[in-house]
Specification:
136 residues; Cytidine Deaminase, domain 2; CMP_dCMP_dom; zinc; metal-binding; CMP/dCMP-type deaminase domain-containing protein
């Protein structure tokens, strides 16, 4: 899977999107897929809960990866389908960007898929990611 195209990785994320409403909360309306440096595919969905206890789809996919004792992400993507059926690739939020980096320092070079023909290294999306220099 590591040599999969952006479209194949996007399709893997789309395959897990099955929105489910619980009260005023929506689970599974964003899907994520990642490929590790070892070539393995992991997927996850978002869970929207009250009081900030939920998590993004990227977190779920990364948790599945870590459960399998892998830590280096080669590529990652998240998708969402609008009410009209149109699919969108979502860039990771700031919390997800930092989470990706903290799982393994090498993930600063993870390729983040931003569209069918567009991607960026995590380091480009996470400015000022180096540990700061001492003041004096």
């Amino acid at each position: 899977m590591i040599s999969a195209s952006h479209d194949e990785l996007i399709a893997a994320a789309q395959a897990v999107v099955y929105p489910h409403r619980v009260g005023d909360r929506l689970f599974g309306n964003v899907g994520a897929a990642l490929v590790t440096e070892g070539g393995n595919l992991y997927r996850g969905v978002c869970i929207d809960t009250g009081s900030g206890t939920g998590f993004c789809a990227e977190h779920a996919a990364i948790a599945a990866m870590v459960t399998a004792r892998e830590y280096r992400i080669a590529r990652i993507v998240a998708v969402w389908r609008g009410d009209d059926g149109t699919w969108y690739v979502l860039p990771p939020c700031g919390r997800c960007r930092e989470f990706i980096r903290q799982v393994d320092w090498g993930n600063i070079d993870t390729e983040v898929v931003l569209g069918r023909a567009r991607s960026a290294a995590l380091r480009e999306l996470l400015p000022a990611h180096e540990w700061p220099d001492p003041l004096d």
